[in-house]
Design goal:
This protein is of the alpha/beta class and about 220 residues long. Helices cover about 40% and strands about 10% of the residues. It has 8 helices and 8 strands. The protein has an 8-stranded parallel β-sheet with strand order 1-2-3-4-5-6-7-8. β7, α8 and β8 form a beta-alpha-beta unit. α7 runs parallel beside α8. It is elongated, with a radius of gyration of 18 Å. One of its GO terms (molecular function) is GTPase activator activity. One of its GO terms (cellular component) is cytosol. This is NLR family CARD domain-containing protein 3-like isoform X1.
């Protein structure tokens, strides 16, 4: 049938954590996993990092897992070569999900279009706490989209954006993001802007942000 053996998955179904990192899963395997977890009350973490997941795989995760499952708390898909189209697929599930608290999409290929495709879903989601979009070839347009989402979303409190390219001569996108976080009703716990080629032009909005924000951790290392 062309399915990757998932004996490890079967063993972990009642253990809370399903760890299939670098396991060579394909879209048909992902479909089987999503179907098995649709109504599973035990698994709180699914880690698919290091597998090359197609748009089709993202569709199955959104439609079969995120729309139906009410137990999953953490979904990790680091380094899965997820595209902007895959992000759009996932967005449909994220918008309707009411259990997921941590979404790790670092080291993918979402780009600005992928984040813009997720903007409305992130704005409407009322449970997500941590979002990692590090190393996704994101630019100022993605920062602005995230800022717009965070104007409405009041639950996200940790945002990873390291190793992207948020640099602008006039930092408009960064300003939108920082202002949205600054105006949150709840304090923001963690914001990672390291390795973004930010230069002196970013100093003004960052200074204003630090004066008025209640962010607990801000990482700015390895910028300009």
């Amino acid at each position: 049938m062309g399915l990757v053996p998932i004996s490890r998955f079967l063993q972990q179904l009642n253990e809370g954590l399903v760890d299939l990192r670098f396991y060579g899963v394909n879209p048909r395997t992902v479909r089987a996993i999503a179907q098995a977890l649709m109504y599973n009350p035990s698994v709180h973490t699914l880690d698919l990092s290091g597998n090359w997941l197609s748009d089709e795989a993202a569709y199955y995760l959104a439609e079969l897992l995120l729309r139906e499952n009410v137990a999953l708390r953490r979904l990790a898909m680091r380094g899965c070569k997820l595209s902007a189209r895959a992000a759009a697929m996932l967005a449909e599930g994220v918008e309707l999900n009411h259990s997921l608290q941590e979404l790790d999409l670092a080291d993918n290929e979402l780009g600005d279009d992928g984040v813009k495709a997720m903007q409305e879903a992130l704005a409407q989601n009322d449970e997500l706490r941590e979002l990692d979009l590090s190393n996704n070839n994101l630019g100022p347009a993605a920062a602005a989209a995230l800022g717009k989402a965070l104007r409405e979303n009041q639950t996200i409190e940790s945002l990873g954006l390291s190793r992207n390219n948020l640099y602008e001569d006039v930092p408009k996108g960064l300003r939108v993001l920082l202002r949205a976080i600054q105006q949150r009703e709840k304090s923001f716990q963690h914001l990672d802007l390291a390795w973004n080629a930010l230069n002196a032009s970013a100093a003004v909005p960052l200074r204003a942000f630090l004066v008025r924000s209640t962010v607990q951790e801000l990482f700015l290392d390895h910028n300009r």
